[in-house]
């Protein structure tokens, strides 16, 4: 991984944010905004929880939902998290391709994370999450492999780019 301060978009006194700090934001965040692109090119953005595990950021959705349909056509997505404050906090954007996560052992580890972090209880079906309250509802799980991560600090303002 390469870390670089983007001087053009940073205060002169700013320094690159260490990756460990950006990763803390990713790991502790409960909600992200998923950005995908529809077949005809229009954007689609939706809030959802995501979990960091084994160097990838995981999220789930119903196979019939718009975000899953968009990913069938274009696997490049962005997951964004941070704060809505102008003068404080750290915002992080994770960009890269996604792929289905279907291994039941890995899904079991992820289900435990969902439960621990936000109290959502999933059981693992055949390569999918099953909703305990609605066993007919299946959720497909995607893993985003970061290609680029951007972190934005506010005091001083900085932009740090991490490339993988």
From TrEMBL:
Q: What domain of life does the UniProt record list for this protein's source?
A: Bacteria
Database matches in Gene3D superfamilies = Electron Transport, Fmn-binding Protein, Chain A
Domain named Pyridoxamine 5'-phosphate oxidase N-terminal is located at 20-149
Q: Which InterPro entries match?
A: F420H2_bilvrd_red/Heme_oxyg (IPR052019), Pyridox_Oxase_N (IPR011576), Split_barrel_FMN-bd (IPR012349)
Q: Which residues cross the membrane?
A: none
Please give an example of a GO cellular component term from this record: cytosol
Keyword terms of this UniProt record: Oxidoreductase
Q: Tell me any Pfam family this protein matches.
A: PNPOx_N
Q: Which GO terms describe its molecular function?
A: coenzyme F420 binding; oxidoreductase activity, acting on the CH-CH group of donors
Matching PANTHER family: HEME OXYGENASE HI_0854-RELATED, PYRIDOXAMINE 5'-PHOSPHATE OXIDASE-RELATED FMN-BINDING
Q: What is this protein called?
A: General stress protein 26
| Species | Jiangella mangrovi
